[in-house]
Amino acid sequence: MDEKINRLILNLQRNNMAGYFVENKERLIRLIASLIKDGDKVGCGDSVTLEDTSI
Question: Would you say 21 and 5 are in contact if contact means Cβ atoms under 8 Å apart?
């Protein structure tokens, strides 16, 4: 993983946010499925990644 990505994820963690890196859409779908449980409410606010991957 690129140093820029590592630094970004670390900075997110320092601000009480989780950051994730996945290699492809299939892994993204698995990650999202593992994070969101039935009944959860999710806000994604203009996520280009979610738009580009049609999620």
Answer: yes
Residues of the chain with pLDDT under 50: none
Amino acid letter, 42 = V
Q: What angle do CA 13, 31, 6 make, to 5 degrees?
A: 35
Q: Could you give the CA distance from residue 42 to residue 40 in angstroms, rounded to a whole number?
A: 6
CA atoms within 13 A on the CB side of 52: 6
pTM of the model: 0.71
Average of per-residue pLDDT values in the chain: 92
Q: Considering only CA atoms, give the Rg of the chain.
A: 12
Q: Tell me the C-alpha distance between 46 and 55, whole Å.
A: 12
